[in-house]
Amino acid sequence: MKKIAVLTSGGDSPGMNAAIRAVVRTAIYNEIEVYGVYHGYQGLLDDDIHKLELGSVGDTIQRGGTFLYSARCLEFKKPEVRQIAINNLRKRDIEGLVVIGGDGSYRGAQLISQECKEIQTIGIPGTIDNDINGTDFTIGFDTALNTIIDLVDKIRDTASSHARTFIIEAMGRDCGDLALWAGLSVGAETIMVPEVKTDLKDVAEKIEQGIKRGKKHSIVLVAEGVMTAQECSNELAKFINIDTRVSVLGHIQRGGSPTGADRVLASRLGGYAVELLMNGETAKGVGIKNNKVIATPFDDIFDGNDHKFDLDLYELAKKLSI
Ligand code: F6P
After folding, report:
1. Regarding the domain delimited by 142-254, which CATH topology (the fold level of the hierarchy) does it fall under?
2. Top-level CATH class of 3-140+258-303?
3. Which of 100, 108, 199, 306 has its CA 20 to 30 A from that of 74?
4. Given ligand 1 and candidates 69, 103, 147, 171, which is best to mutate, with the most ligand atoms within 8 Å of its CB?
5. Ligand 1 pocket at CB < 6 A
6. Where is the active site (predicted)?
7. What is the pLDDT of residues 210-264, one digit of tens each?
8. Per-domain residue ranges for the chain?
């Protein structure tokens, strides 16, 4: 392995820069040339591929976003388009590609390694959603979690002053992990996730009981995969007449400086991805399980269900918020 490339794809997440840095520095440490592909898979098509040096990743570990930029490239689903990407890698003799992103991004990597045996591919899980098989945690989840905690703590201050119920919408696509972990951390009265059905009549009753007990305010944290906060507020209004406000946290959740946990995770996974390429491995996604770095074939990541919603944690959060 003499030359590799790295790209970031899909929704960005804090810690992607730390992962790129680990890929670049591990490769150069092992005398491998590294190329950065700008703007995700689109950059592979546009030949936006540039050599990275040790200094290219200096002063990046603490930065949110991705200095390689990210994009969602639907065109990449076409085989003739992928051939352009493969040719752009081959003409530079690039033999390994590291893709940092979600499992949609892994699919592009899987296709490249299937269609060109000379190019090995490895995926690194980068998304705030924590929704990828083959890993307990994705890069960016911890930072987004802490961002939500900070924001909801602030909302709670004003909710308390005005004795209001706040319906707060968290990201996560179809996965409830962000809402669950954040909800537990902020002591939300109700956590709504796609993995567990919630009856809004019960939510209304719980708020009512709380008010009877002297509670002045309430936080309902709803994952975007369930419904919007506005829909939730409209539905709740059918059962209870209280002063509510809606807050959609939005893309703030994707930004900011990565936490220590994300920087360490990104560094471990970035370093491991390069080691796998050097060992001839391909079509695998790296991850962390029980604090050990592991690699899982893309096929098992796509078809598996090892990243299960933590029902015990959900039940605990429920018990603690009575
Ligand atoms: O996958 C990350 C994520 O932030 C999801 O939580 C969210 O549903 C989606 O991306 C938003 O995508 P976009 O940035 O295209 O609005």
Report:
1. Rossmann fold (3.40.50)
2. alpha beta
3. 306
4. 171
5. 11, 102, 127-129, 171-173, 224, 254
6. 129 (proton acceptor)
7. 999 999 899 999 999 999 999 999 999 999 999 899 999 999 999 999 999 999 9
8. 3-140+258-303, 142-254
